[in-house]
Amino acid sequence: MDYNALLTTIKEWLFSSGLKIVLILIALFIGLKLIKGFSKRLSKLFLKKRDDEEARKRADTISSVIRNTLSIGAVLITLLIILEQIGIKIGPLLAAAGIAGLAIGFAGQSLVKDIINGFFMLLEDQIRVGDIIEVAGISGVVEKINLKLTRLRDLEGNVHFIPNSNIDTVSNKTKEYSCYLLDIGVAYREDADEVMEVIKQIDEEMRQDPKYKDIILQPIEIFGLDRFDDSAVVIRARTRTAPGMQWSVGREFKRRIKKRFDELDIEIPFPHTTLYMGQGKDKSSPPLHVQMDENRSAR
């Protein structure tokens, strides 16, 4: 074996194809940096007209998807060029990939549906990273979204990977603003108008509180006496908050309601049963016969 000839061949390859491969990798590195810069610039363009939390979430989501898509494309193109430089003909590979892609296309229609659904979800600004949503029967915070799938993390910390083709309906709980619905039950003896005034006072105090004044967006809406339950009359109200803050506001509102109702002796009823023996036409009620079993042992 002629080692000198082999060494000469290696040197020639390094100074020809090898040098080209190094330059190609450098170009890839620069290209990835440019793609990253482009995605940041695109994000800033989105924020020129509107710079708030909602706009930032949308800009971050779209720029992330564009950056990942362009980066994958750049890596694949670079890989094909490198294969050609090391002597592998990419023509047959592309032809084989086309045939394989056609075969996979018939079997992988769900993948196409994933990509189409993902594209329109992003185009229509249905969900963004950081939103709290409910899709496919699962609720959680959107951690990542791309054209293939959406990743959610629920309240227990579980991560759910949901293909976009499985998403038929999106319930976004943090789109622009959020609401918390309050069903406040009080005893039948209470004056409903007085209770509603107390609720308004609590809302006014919360909107003056530095901790909550910036996240409660408007005065509480009291719809009125909503229904008669078995043990309570229910007053329905709704408060509007900044996106994602409805639960913390709702918990604090309930805490203050319980404390204020205790101070004013407004009864929050618990389930109980009232025995009604009926009433005759003469407005008299029949007696209630009670018999004690003396032979029954006490427990």
What descriptors fit this protein?
299 residues, alpha+beta, SH3 type barrels, 3 domains, 3-stranded antiparallel beta sheet, 8 strands
Could you please describe the fold and organization of this structure?
Strand 2 and strand 3 (149-153) form a beta hairpin. The protein has 3 domains: 3-93; 123-172, SH3 type barrels (Roll), CATH 2.30.30.60; 178-263, Alpha-Beta Plaits (2-Layer Sandwich), CATH 3.30.70. The protein has a 5-stranded antiparallel beta sheet. A 3-stranded antiparallel beta sheet has the order 6-8-7, with helices on one face. Helix 1 packs antiparallel against helix 2 (53-85), helix 3 crosses helix 4 and helix 5 packs across helix 6 (246-263). The chain starts with a helix and ends in a 36-residue tail after the last helix. The protein has helices spanning 3-49, 53-85, 90-107, 109-123, 192-208, 246-263; strands spanning 132-135, 138-145, 149-153, 159-163, 170-172, 178-186, 221-228, 233-241. It is of the alpha+beta class. The chain is built from 6 helices and 8 strands. The mean pLDDT is 81.
